[in-house]
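seq as requested:
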Amino acid sequence: MTKNALALLAATATLALGACAKKAPEQLPPAPVETGTAPTETPTDSVSGPGTQEHFATAVGAPNTTVYFDTDMYDIDAEDAAKLQTQARYFAQYSNVNFTVEGHADERGTREYNLALGERRANAAKNYLVSLGIPAERIRTVSYGKERPVALGSDEGSWAQNRRAATVVID
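struct tokens:
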């Protein structure tokens, strides 16, 4: 294509887009009319009741929704066990709530290695919850490897936050 043809094409595109621009309406719609009744409130159970992530995080405490792991590890230690026991009590009380355990890794290592490690972490948490009496069919696992970090940084503090298994309620 020649320079003239490109210039003509660019000018035509500019004109076409300019023709599509929205224009202000000539007359504005009328202002809302007061009806004298208060708006109805939505019950809180339907917004943040059992079966929502907000209810789960509030009931067990937000820090108890996630367990953390050491580098290249996926074993459940005493602190993780306490968090998972708290989660198990919640899921035993709300037996109709299904959930996902998401496995994560830090940025170090290959994508394939971190996906496999995230899967082992998610399954470790799931297996512990099953050992506490939560039916396995209520628990889904997924590994995100290093693809969904919560802390952006290439330091030990960031890596420690990203080596985790997070429990997420399925709405």
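The chain has six helices and four strands.
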